[in-house]
Design goal:
Shape: globular
Structural class: alpha/beta
Order of helices and strands: EHEHEHEHEHEEHEEHEHEHHHH
Helix content: 40-55%
Largest sheet: 7 strands, parallel
Radius of gyration: 19 Å
Strand content: 15-25%
């Protein structure tokens, strides 16, 4: 299939585009820089230079590719307006195509807020903090666009580890600096997933042409303190962890601290049952040593 991936040089986007290209699909990836173009080209992905403000480019790509996967994120002040306009452009041209089209939007589990002891499913009402509340509007925009020749899907990955580390890179960086690894609370749990397992779920959705809402997590239940200690030991330390209060975390991370303090259990049973998806990775703690080697190589 001909597939267009936005954010193709990013943490999730590159993993998804790589998985699809190596599975034999014809993949083109939106990148913002020549460096990004070189990076995706080494993964047998054809680079397309542009950004989310290039609405004509996005519309044309969505109309001429069988699948569009939206992984790009713009962290500027106009983030949500830009994302809405970009999706409007892609949806309009994809929906007008004469052949079936699939559009996948990348969201995240933070929209559930703190879940408590019961694992949240796709049927549960979200409770997002202000930082990600607008994401629900975008999800609704995507899902409401389904009809005719257009199928739409929303994927909610957990905290994505592997490769350069994303959020988990901070644990390795603190350990490498010789100090304890700071976490907010420490008894809380993050819903997590390896980037390769995220990519395999996207491939399943694409090859089965499935729409709807999907959680994407590996089912691990380790606390953030256990993860941080594993990162510290993986770099030769004793497993030292510094537990921060939410106020201390907010002083360091601003609004992001509320999300880092979440205690989340999330279920991906729907994907296991309906897609036959099975995560291949055992969890951050179990794989901390190999993840540390990858982080060092990227750093």
């Amino acid at each position: 299939m001909a597939i267009f991936v936005t954010g193709a040089s990013g943490h999730i986007g590159l993993a998804v585009a790589h998985e699809l290209a190596w599975a034999g699909h014809e993949v083109r990836g939106l990148v913002r820089t020549d460096v990004g173009a070189q990076r995706v080209a080494t993964h047998e992905i054809e680079p397309v230079l542009g950004g989310l403000a290039d609405l004509e480019l996005l519309a044309r790509a969505a109309g001429t590719h069988e699948v569009t996967v939206h992984c790009a994120v713009d962290h500027g002040p106009e983030r949500w307006a830009l994302e809405t306009a970009a999706l409007d452009a892609m949806i309009a041209d994809a929906s007008e195509a004469r052949r079936p089209r699939l559009l996948i939007y990348t969201s995240g589990v933070w929209v559930y807020g703190t879940t408590g002891a019961r694992a949240a499913t796709e049927a549960d009402a979200p409770a997002p903090p202000a930082m990600v509340a607008r994401r629900l509007d975008v999800e609704a925009q995507v899902l409401a666009a389904a009809g005719g020749n257009l199928t739409t899907a929303v994927v909610r990955p957990g905290c994505v580890y592997g490769g350069g580390g994303s959020l988990t890179a901070a644990w390795f960086a603190a350990a490498a600096a010789g100090g304890p690894v700071p976490v907010i609370d420490g008894d809380n749990r993050w819903a997590m997933v390896h980037r390769a397992d995220v990519a395999s779920m996207y491939r399943a959705l694409i090859e089965q042409h499935r729409g709807g809402l999907w959680n994407c997590v590996d089912g691990s239940r380790d606390t953030t303190a256990a993860c941080a200690a594993a990162a510290h030991r993986a770099l030769g330390g004793a497993g030292d962890v510094q537990r921060l209060t939410l106020d201390e975390g907010t002083a360091r991370h601003g609004a992001l601290a509320a999300c880092l303090a979440f205690d989340q259990l999330v279920s991906a049973d729907k994907a296991r049952r309906e897609l036959g998806w099975r995560p291949a990775h055992a969890g951050f703690v179990a794989e901390a040593r190999r993840l540390a080697r990858s982080w060092r190589a990227h750093a």
